[in-house]
Design brief:
The complex is a heterohexamer, with 3 copies of chain A and 3 copies of chain B. In chain A, strand 9 (189-196) and strand 10 (199-202) form a beta hairpin. In chain A, helix 2 (99-114) crosses helix 3. In chain A, the strands form 3 sheets. In chain A, strands 1, 2, 3, 4, 5 and 6 form a 6-stranded mixed β-sheet that branches. In chain A, strands 10-9-11-12 form a 4-stranded antiparallel β-sheet, with helices on both faces. In chain A, strands 7-8 form a two-stranded antiparallel ribbon. In chain A, 25% of the residues lie in helices and 35% in strands. Chain A is built from 5 helices and 12 strands. By secondary structure, chain A is an alpha+beta fold. By secondary structure, chain B is an alpha+beta fold. Chain B has a single domain (19-236), classed as GHMP Kinase, N-terminal domain (Ribosomal Protein S5, domain 2, 2-Layer Sandwich). Chain B has 4 helices and 11 strands; from the N terminus they run ββββββαβαββαββα. Chain B has helices at 94-107, 134-148, 175-180, 209-236, and strands at residues 10-11, 14-15, 27-31, 39-45, 48-59, 72-79, 119-129, 159-165, 168-171, 183-190, 195-205. In chain B, the strands form 3 sheets. In chain B, strands 3-4-5-7-6 form a 5-stranded mixed β-sheet. In chain B, a hairpin with a 2-residue loop joins strand 4 and strand 5 (48-59). In chain B, 57% of the residues are buried. The chains are: A alpha+beta, B alpha+beta.
């Protein structure tokens, strides 16, 4: 996803895959161990720490009151932002968000938004004037591949964990959370596959990401509908591969959804 | 219901702009429209008006981006401030940056970058008028500009979206279908090779719908491919 | 204007001029063929595509409703912005506007503003609160010299072509244009001359711009009044040359004005 | 009185969170918590949750920053958007830039930078949850991350603040004490060497008060130092 | 009528500040006012207070800007936030960038840049108080700072504006004349050589008016030139 | 503070200090000659030019009307900004503020703010809606060391010199100043010491700053209370040194305070 490693490394991984093995001995369609810890922050209205193998992502949700978009005057607003913190990898650099950071933010935003898991119409305070704004901020803490799935999982976990703060005279009292939960009615998740040579594996680890030819991320909701999709990488998929992976995604999504 | 949303999208088998579900909007492609660029193309597709220019292979600045074994391909998608309903502030926004990235990855598989080590091939896509489907229009234009610049490629890259409106799968969404429809699925391919170079999607496809839409999008790509080849023939003559 | 070409090229052009010839065989005071196509965009409230020889500029006008400046509470607002798009020339680079881009924007803005061609007082909706804002955006598409004249011409052409969109309950319905035209009461234009060695030529082509010593742009209104002026280049003009060029500008402006 | 200001800060010799004037909040330090960093540490201190990572010695980019006679130490203090009450916009603000600078200068005196000429040692401090005292927490975490990365140092650098609330000198201000108190004095030291590597202060100390607070802060540093050593022992064993 | 606009600009042949139409405001020039700069000058002109500093010839950063056959001249015009009525945000705005460019081009014709290949000559102009005519004041100050730095020049560059207020052509506009007048024409010249190095104009000059204003501005430049020479003599003595 | 000079230079200065001498022959606890000229600008509501030796700083105060912070609805707002203008030193570069610029701004802001010398509660116009905003802008004109003390001195001098402009119908008439002074009730100042080798000197000149090991700036109010403190440099102080310098600062501050 971010750099070139020697052709030798690529050959090694491709040959390994040809003999049906992965660098970390997983099956081709197996996730690394996943841990989801919701509620890790007291300052955020919602939060979650997700680990997929050595990859760690923390997601925080902040609520604020602001203006709606003028063409959707009765809907709340949601914004998703990810940061590829240089703390998480020697490959990440300080500075304004690059195309990889922006793609991650937008692909995670897409599955949350398009699944309509947040009932935005319930976030309207005064039509056309005041609505709740939901800020979803993802911080990558340790980067060992597959940020899409980890971040999307962290986002939905944090959202489900979000409670409204107290409001007094139109002013938010952040220090006092109420029991009222953010209206979240679905559990969308994303699953990512990498194509390396002719083989396709689920949940690529960093070493696999660095040599992949093509990548595809598929987002689904609880019903198994497809809500978001993003192909990456400089290579290609066949049509059959894509249709196949869409079906596989539905399956694997269920594993993820159990965790939130 | 959002402001401006139509009640129905398909009436008597026809869409709001009169098209059938599987029908493309009108597409016009012209090649070699700019003098200073090494290659260029202008595409009108429905209400979209898009210009693309290709420069290169040329020296890389900054130098540390150069690769010893191949040319780097760089794509920049940008929208003119007057191309959209509410004036867009000049300069790249997050959406443009994402589209620039997927555009590059849509084109990269066909370009023989290994022929030009240590150089850059730059493609600039300028949206002069936007009316749903600018990323596909941009990829089509970019692919023609590369060809016009004489950059060796395995093939052209056509692109086309399918989508879902009012519960039906349709080809090539119009502005109003894009704004109020249920799903959008842009696809780019290498024709004759069964290779998908771009696929993105947002909205909602139930089981079965995705496959139907995907196949329709690929068919749309093949129609676009014919128009692309026609435009090249018109410019350069043909066999 | 933007770079150095070999002294050889300069010598060649200077010698050519000394023998009364230009690189493209034009007379010293002759414009290249000019084409003005107004109304090239449906999304913009006004637009125009201008070609001067191989130079191509597209100008779009967008209207919006906003606040007036506090010291001119009853006047509409106009803003001019030009982009030297890297698509238009290998000499243009991505990134924030450089001094050449800013100069172009400001010199074109000057002639439009100072000629008072837009009746800004008619753009007031509610004094001190709401006025029409006129955004003039110029996009350079192909750069073969003399952007000043092409952009100014495109701006006035686009402005004359601008119609108000429908307004309903204070909301603009951009999709429906009315028949009401933007109140534009003059046709200011700019003419640019380049001094190369001892010779002065109208409408410099790129090759001439690259070797010019000094440049002057003169803006006039329909009455022939001078409204804007800008000298450029690292060389100088004599006083007589300037007075002479001001008179020549009045003449040549009439040719341009016929086109809009 | 500002909104939310308490009437009293100390009641019957106890602070609002039950602590005595000279008592620290609870501190928990864990070392080696990240896989990709060369060294890392996680510190919980009162309500603060802070992660630090160290990379280096490594190549310097951009190159002109490299020094022929030593490594450059670079520190970046940054706050997660969700770490504070009102969401913080991503990217460095002026406060973060100042804290990054004083943090670097608090650590520089103990690092043997001369052992690694022409390289960079980068320390990143990420505030995941902020509750008064983030700069001290950050320095403590950074110092542990450096140690975990095996960077040769003369000693660890503990840090701790003292302050004044309701007219009394107290150790390690809580959130409410920081917001409404009269003075804050963060200090970092090299233990056993009588060296102060960081001191900043804002508020109001009358004659005598400063000295008292300063000594209390240094005592606080020594308590933190013990916890730092404990954490290293726990990780690496120890004599 | 704009807020603050006077009814008349000239009453009984006198302007609002008592000057005759062809009269300059008071000008005071001092050279060598800064210690760290290679050359410097301070100019008070009417209510304008402007400082200029020259550094160079010196090494060029970034290096790729250097020219093998000459020095590059760089000018930076900047306004202090407190120099204008409504506080100006720090940092360059579009107007400052344009003025920096035309200032450089006003000075370039007199500097023997070919004597110092591969170097930079930097001129910084700081507007401390602005009251109409800052660009001319800046050019005058810059020209003196260059001379003070010992940069070889063909001559000094004086600058002065003429304009039109209440239908009359006047020299050297005041603040109120600039805000509400009909035209402004700043000019810079190389004295004794009939060379105009800067001319800009905005407003409205009818036929004939331009020529009159232009000549008046050139006369103004010559008056300024005398004051410039005087200031150099005062500093360096003179024959 | 900003760069490395040769070890030779450092040795020279250290040795000089060891023999109780400074590069400019001052006593260790002696300021260079200080000149404070208040009221140097007519456009600013308050201003001052401060010279400490060859160091020159101009500070301007502008007043505006704006919104209060939401958690301090009845208090005026103050902002301090410093610019290390490239005109002032070959060591300063164009561009966005670097860490040194930001530190200077914030340390000067600190002593003004924490001394409560401006009665912000008197700057409230309408609670929660309109308050006076005090912009303190410092421009470094000539840099020969010790910007902290010079800038802080310029700031308090300019503030004490600040008068309100006339206000008519809620609009500020900047051209007419009233007799009403900004309510400034204290005269906080800052004193800076540099530790070079084992010696500590007051008011370091640039050559001393370039070789210093550690630096400390201490801000006090009229009563002698400490209001602000900032240690800098890559070296350290002993505890005793700090306590000592705090006391010395109280003393030397009186000298500065007499000047404003």
């Amino acid at each position: 996803m971010f750099d070139i490693v020697a052709d030798i490394k690529k050959d090694f991984i491709v040959n390994l895959l040809r003999s049906k093995k992965r660098v970390d001995n997983r099956a081709f369609d197996e996730y690394r161990p996943i841990v989801v810890e919701p509620g890790v922050s007291e300052k955020a209205e919602g939060s979650s720490l997700v680990k997929i193998g050595n990859t760690q992502v923390m997601v925080g949700v902040k609520l604020a009151i602001g203006e709606p978009f003028s063409d959707m005057p009765d809907l709340g607003v949601m914004m998703t932002n990810a940061e590829l913190n240089p703390l998480a990898s020697p490959r990440f650099e300080k500075g304004p968000p690059d195309e990889d950071t922006i793609e991650l933010s937008r692909v995670v935003d897409r599955v949350i938004r398009e699944s309509k898991c947040i009932e935005l119409e319930k976030l309207c305070i005064t039509e056309g004037e005041e609505v709740w704004i939901v800020f979803i901020d993802a911080h990558i803490l340790d980067y060992d591949g597959n940020l899409f799935d980890a971040t999307a999982l962290g986002a939905i976990s944090a959202l489900r964990n979000t409670r409204f703060p107290k409001v007094e005279d139109g002013r938010i009292i952040y220090s006092e959370k109420t029991d009222k939960k953010l209206p979240v009615v679905d559990r969308p998740v994303e699953t990512t596959f990498a194509k390396i040579g002719k083989d396709i594996v689920l949940d690529p680890v960093l070493d696999e990401e660095l040599v992949l030819d093509a990548r595809i991320t598929i987002g689904t909701n609880e019903k198994g509908d497809i809500c978001a999709m993003q192909k990456g990488g400089d290579g290609t998929f066949t049509q059959e591969e894509i249709i196949d992976l869409v079906n596989k995604s539905r399956e694997k999504s269920e594993e993820l959804r159990k965790l939130v | 219901m959002k402001i401006g949303e139509p009640e129905k999208f398909i009436i008597d088998g026809k869409r709001l702009d009169g098209r059938k579900p599987g029908e493309l909007r009108k597409v016009k492609i012209e090649v070699g429209v700019l003098k200073k660029a090494d290659g260029s193309a202008y595409v009108e597709w429905g209400g979209n008006k898009v210009l693309a220019a290709c420069y290169g292979p040329r020296e890389v600045h900054p130098k540390h981006l150069a690769r010893a074994d191949r040319a780097i391909l760089r794509c920049t998608y940008s929208m003119a401030p007057f191309s959209v309903t509410d004036r867009k502030r000049p300069g790249p926004d997050r959406r443009s940056i994402e589209i620039s990235k997927v555009t590059r990855q849509a084109l990269e598989p066909v370009v023989f970058t290994n022929l030009f080590p240590r150089t850059a091939i730059d493609v600039f896509i300028e949206i002069l008028q936007a009316q749903a489907g600018t990323r596909c229009t941009g990829i089509v234009a970019a692919s023609m500009a590369l060809a016009d610049a004489g950059i060796p490629m395995r093939n052209l890259v056509p692109a086309c979206a399918a989508g879902k409106v009012g519960g039906e799968i349709v080809l090539d969404l119009s502005d109003v279908e894009d704004n109020f429809g249920e799903a959008d699925l842009p696809v780019a391919i290498v024709p004759q090779k069964d290779e998908v170079t771009l696929i993105q999607m947002d909205g909602n496809f139930e089981k079965g719908e995705f496959e139907k839409a995907f196949k329709l999008a690929v068919e749309g790509c093949m129609k676009i491919y014919e128009i692309q080849k026609e435009a090249l023939k018109k410019r350069y003559g043909g066999a």
